[in-house]
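TICKET: design request
STATUS: open
ATTACHED STRUCTURE:
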């Protein structure tokens, strides 16, 4: 699958796309409104940042307890129910005279349940498009997210001015309800990807399995940490420039949109693995400019340039899927989504705390510097998965492969892991290759 026309002709992709777009619009508008509402009530950069990005912190609870349900409940019912629940919570936050502590209580309650959303959504995308179309579909979702954030932050700023923050929250609640309706009547009924009832024990076991292989750990850390630290920079737009925060958010979304178009559609497949580290560095380096408190035009240019780096998520997710067994695709993507949002929440909390003691510009530069350091540390483990053609042995048949031993899980199941030499170490070629899996058509 190579063209957008083929993508949108795929059965169920259009309603899936509309469901995701409506939820992104709702999240963007309601998040900006809530940040303004809390900042107006408290004057605290920390609380304002937590209001916009703090709900992600609660997702770590869901990732540790509920994530096994991502592959064990019907996708259509899950997406419909989650959208309705988020809409109800957003409407509650719009109640007049609701105290700030109650606003954060609602956010804390919604966070763990929201952790299922990423796993269910992107696991379903993997089913709808199959493996060869996943990256193109994911890039389209990212592009739409960038476009919707541009429009959503702009519309959110207008709605906050015209209707007040509570009015903007009600608009967000209505968009969540529309997303629930599209999911219910547009998506087909599908069985769960994995049999059995979800449980905390299953969640822990699958998390441990995904985390057990060093190549996957490196990819997860690259997806989570540099991204989360830079979102900490973004969480300070409101205290940095209260009158122009919407403009900075919109420019950031535009940069993300352009980056996803370039990587998802224009960059050849063979080049994408080589861009993971440069894009992660690009995401952070321009924010170092905020250490000298640049004028607004220069700040806008820095934000536009930096957010091109969010496109690193595309080749990193492609790498993650190459290292993950199909039956855990939803769980793996859910762990990625929940971990990323959790680190974004932590980044926002850390940036807000530093800004409380110093200034928003100092905090933004410090978070950017930390992101650069993390990316450089992870770079050796993100080398492209390029085979050494002269030393790769032929893969034995399934019946000839020895059973996997405890501690040798690479995410490919008991009969598809890479062959190890007598010392238990992978040869250089085998260390670079993704595990071989039989095609499942998903």
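STATUS: resolved
RESOLUTION: sequence designed for all positions
ATTACHED SEQUENCE:
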């Amino acid at each position: 699958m190579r063209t957008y026309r083929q993508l949108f002709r795929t059965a169920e992709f259009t309603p899936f796309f509309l469901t995701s777009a409506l939820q992104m619009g709702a999240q963007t508008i309601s998040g900006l409104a809530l940040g303004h509402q809390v900042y107006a009530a408290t004057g605290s950069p920390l609380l304002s940042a937590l209001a916009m990005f703090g709900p992600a912190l609660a997702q770590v609870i869901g990732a540790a307890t509920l994530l096994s349900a991502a592959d064990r409940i019907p996708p259509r019912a899950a997406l419909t129910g989650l959208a309705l629940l988020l809409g109800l919570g957003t409407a509650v936050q719009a109640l007049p005279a609701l105290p700030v502590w109650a606003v954060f209580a609602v956010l804390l309650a919604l966070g763990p349940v929201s952790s299922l959303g990423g796993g269910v959504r992107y696991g379903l995308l993997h089913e709808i498009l199959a493996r060869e179309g996943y990256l193109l579909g994911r890039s389209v979702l990212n592009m739409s997210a960038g476009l919707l954030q541009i429009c959503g932050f702009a519309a959110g700023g207008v709605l906050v001015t015209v209707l007040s923050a509570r009015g903007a929250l009600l608009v967000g609640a209505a968009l969540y309800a529309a997303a629930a309706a599209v999911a219910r009547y547009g998506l087909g009924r599908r069985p769960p990807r994995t049999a059995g009832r979800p449980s905390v024990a299953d969640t822990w076991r699958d998390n441990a399995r995904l985390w057990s292989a060093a190549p996957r750990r490196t990819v997860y850390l690259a997806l989570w940490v540099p991204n989360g630290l830079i979102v900490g920079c973004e969480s300070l737009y409101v205290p940095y420039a209260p009158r122009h925060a919407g403009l900075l958010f919109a420019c950031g979304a535009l940069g993300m949109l352009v980056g996803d178009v370039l990587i998802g559609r224009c960059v050849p497949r063979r080049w994408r693995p080589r861009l993971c580290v440069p894009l992660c560095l690009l995401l952070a380096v321009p924010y170092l400019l905020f250490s000298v408190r640049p004028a607004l035009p220069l700040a806008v240019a820095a934000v536009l340039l930096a957010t091109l780096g969010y496109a690193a998520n595309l080749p990193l997710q492609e790498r993650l899927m190459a290292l993950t067994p199909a039956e855990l695709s939803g769980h793996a993507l859910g762990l990625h989504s929940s971990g990323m949002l959790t680190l974004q929440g932590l980044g926002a909390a850390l940036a807000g705390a530093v800004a409380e003691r110093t200034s928003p510009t100092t905090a933004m530069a410090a978070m950017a510097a930390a992101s650069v350091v993390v990316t450089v540390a992870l770079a050796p483990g993100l080398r492209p998965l390029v085979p050494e053609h002269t030393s790769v042995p032929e893969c034995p048949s399934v019946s000839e492969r020895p059973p996997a031993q405890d501690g040798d899980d690479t995410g490919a199941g008991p009969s598809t892991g890479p062959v190890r030499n007598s010392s238990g170490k992978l040869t250089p070629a085998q260390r670079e290759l993704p595990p071989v899996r039989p095609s499942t058509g998903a």
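CLOSING REMARK: The chain has 17 helices and no strands. The mean pLDDT is 76.
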